[in-house]
Automatic annotation (TrEMBL), chain A:
Keyword line: ATP-binding, Nucleotide-binding, Transport
GO cellular component: plasma membrane
Name the record gives this protein: ABC transporter ATP-binding protein
PROSITE patterns: ABC_TRANSPORTER_2 (PS50893)
Pfam families named in the record: ABC_tran, BCA_ABC_TP_C
Origin: domain of life: Bacteria
Span of domain ABC transporter: 5-247
GO molecular function, one term: ATP hydrolysis activity
Species: Azospirillum lipoferum
InterPro entries according to UniProt: AAA+_ATPase, ABC_AA/LPS_Transport, ABC_transporter-like_ATP-bd, BCA_ABC_TP_C, P-loop_NTPase
Keyword ATP-binding set for record: yes
TrEMBL record, chain B:
The family this protein is said to belong to: Belongs to the binding-protein-dependent transport system permease family. LivHM subfamily.
Membrane-crossing residue ranges in chain numbering: 6-28, 60-79, 91-110, 130-159, 189-211, 223-249, 261-277
UniProt name for this protein: Branched-chain amino acid ABC transporter permease
GO CC terms in record: plasma membrane
InterPro entries reported in the protein's UniProt record: ABC_transp_permease, BCAA_transport_permease
Keyword Ion transport: no
CDD domains in alphabetical order: TM_PBP1_LivH_like (cd06582)
Organism: Azospirillum lipoferum
Superkingdom field: Bacteria
Pfam families, per the entry: BPD_transp_2
TrEMBL record, chain C:
Protein's UniProt keywords contain Cell division: no
Taxonomic path: Bacteria, Pseudomonadati, Pseudomonadota, Alphaproteobacteria, Rhodospirillales
Membrane topology label: Multi-pass membrane protein
Principal location class: membrane
Organism for this UniProt entry: Azospirillum lipoferum
Annotated localization: Cell membrane
Pfam families per record: BPD_transp_2
MF term (GO), any: branched-chain amino acid transmembrane transporter activity
Protein name: Branched-chain amino acid ABC transporter permease
Amino acid sequence: MTHVLEVSSLKKYFGGVKAVDGVSFTVEEGEILGLIGPNGCGKSTLFNCILGQLTPTEGEVKLDGRVVTGLYPAQLNRLGVSRTFQLLQVFPNLSVRENLILAGQEHKGSMIGRLFGARDAGLTAEADRMIAFFKLEHLADQKAGGLSYGQQKLLDAAMAFMAGPRLVLLDEPAGGVNLTMLANLKERLQIINRELGATFVVIEHNMDFVMSLCSRVVVMAEGKILAEGPPSAIRNDPAVIEAYLGH
Amino acid sequence: MDQFLQLVVAGLATGAIYALAAIGFTLVWQTSQTINFAQGEFVMLPAILVLVGTHAGLPVWAAFAVASIAFVLLFGFGFKRFLVEPMQRHGVLPLAIATMALSVLVKEAAKNGFSAEAQPFPSLVPDGMLSLWGAALSARDLAIFVVAVVAIVGLQLFITRTRTGRTMQATAQNPTVARILGIPVERMILLTFLINAMLALVASYLVSPVYLAKFSNGESIGLAAFIAAIVGGFNQIRGALAGGFLIGLIDNLTAAYVSSAYRTAVPLVVLVVVILVKPEGLLGRKEERTV
Amino acid sequence: MIRRLDASLLILLVAFPILWLLPSGLKSYGLYVVSLWLVMSIAAMGLNLTLGYAGLTSLAQGAFLGIGAYATAILTTKAGWPLPAAFLASSALSFAVGVLLGFPALRVKHHYLAFVTLAFTVVVFLVARNEQWLTGGVFGIANIPRPVLFGSDLGAALPFYRLLLCVTLVLALAMWWLLKSPWGRAFLALRENAVRAASLGVDIRAYTLLAFAIGSAYGGAAGSLYAPLVEFIDPAPFALSASFVLLLTVVAGGAGSFFGPFVGAFFSYMLPELLRATGGWYLIIYAAVVLLIVMISPTGLLGLIERWRDHRSQAKAAAARAAAAPTLGAASGETDSLGKGATQ
């Protein structure tokens, strides 16, 4: 069986700094994998290498058994990999609906086809469904820049799902989000995971969020994988506790 | 060989003028992220102001004095206080665009307020030929070179040997840290603008006897200074110095040996190659760059 | 955004008949001035796409104006082409050169891109001045013919103005269509956040090149109309300062607003002619006015209006949030307070 994502002995060095130092793991169809570790352990660098934002020093990334190392972020996205960033990244001067249409349009037909085709690339209905799903209806026509932080965070996540991705990498989706919003977000992610069969990798510092959402957790420390397993096992792993307390 | 030596001296003289303008350009970029598209007009204007003075009947020395003081006040202090300061919070590009508008404004004011024709400018050095190692060299070129180098060395001594100079240098290299260290950053930034105006002043008085004083002089000098600053390294005084001499030499040698019609084109090609291959400049430190 | 562009379409369609009829009483000089306004609006529209929508700082629009003008002048006077064919060829040539000039834009951004395009503009100017066999050098090219279309001579000032008006309308509609399409959205995304856009599948390289090429094609098209308008061209109007003025035009009018180029071109090209009565001082007044506009509102005149409108819609959004709070329960009320406090 091929894995949705397979990372083998991935390394990324910045000069003498080994940000990611030989990381291997796989992600299976339909799973929600948590990626945790102390600050500066290389999680975000690993994400950026997988997503083509950075070129790995060594190693290989496979998507559905196909080598995708070295592809551009846009190419990877069109292969069905989508992401959110640690810091908010919505387009403040576009409306909420336009943000979502933008997030889906590059997956619809050819470039020339989009120029002469429908102005919304046929995505208004889909965008409105997404808006309703994330409970942003009353803000659909507002500029995204005018939304509150939590609302922008929801929009940011919603944009990652517009193109019906196969694999979604979420970089700290819970960062700075209040508890009620967090429960809402977790529920949304679980529904999407269940209904669309989308596979997730989630970087997060909020342990309760990770442990209740994810079916499996990978722990990184100093560029390497420290432990891997179901949340219950990770929670009691002495090496993991040491890594967190040591910092 | 004889001709080559003459060209090298002429190139160094031109280069010294470019270097004066480029150093000022670099200084204000370093301290306040100002890309001054009007730098060429800054070099054009002082000579025009002197002529306005002499035409009004002032004796030459008084015209020089009045023009110099007025220029440094207006385009050192005034430029910083009334254009750069209000624009700075909007970012690099809006400020650069404002200096473009200033460039058009100054040029048109010189053209309509004074003269559209090139005017003779009193030379501080008599023209003539000097014989050096068997080669006949233009005394004026040598004098320009010497005066410019004295100005640059003076600036360098000020920066490295005086307390104020060193403080200014620290501000230029890292305004944020300087502020933390309790350096009066605003005063230091103002100082760089005053120095910029003074360097432009010197360049203006050196170049105008050769090319005559004309409202459009700033175009080519500004472009050359601009290229010199970027090629040498946008963020280094010695980069601007080296860039100035390099562009001066390329300029004169191209005109003589390649094509006088395309003498401006060769430095531009150098500019584009440097930007694409080593955008921090030949002597520059790596700074911000986008992918 | 969609609603705003629809309003733009309405304004275009209302303005057209007015502009068709309005100048009929003008003498030929007055007609020349409004014609110049239209032509420069086209060039500024192109730069507005490159700079205002896609966020790429170009100092090359004056050069493309020159490329279009010279291509048309040469094709119509030396090769005897009719103007429509020369117009298409000039635009296509500018498009192609624009793609080439776009490549550096893939490597460098912001002020570095401005420097590269500045170098390009000076080189184009030098070629126009020095390659006498092709461009006539400083003597330029004279007697550029005005067109005869469908058997009717459009040489006189008024018919030629109306032809320009029709072309401007068509190009403005095309721009409106483009900006409303997914491409327009992608250009905007490029300007606001290229990294995020790429992560959503937007092909940054392709859109960067296209933004440059389409903007340049508008520059070339404007040049192609400029040549028969003035009937004589030499290198002077395509010097570096022309590119400065075009950039100022777009910025003063309002980079990234649909009618910004028209407003800007009014200031840069029509106002100076209206101020001719002030003697030699009109360009000084113009430069001072532009400097003031840029300093007061870096987003241009239409940017001022936009800011005011944003302000209003923000207020409306706040009202909507407040009104929605009861149905969403405590959640949306807490979002604001906790959201800001809990960032790490």
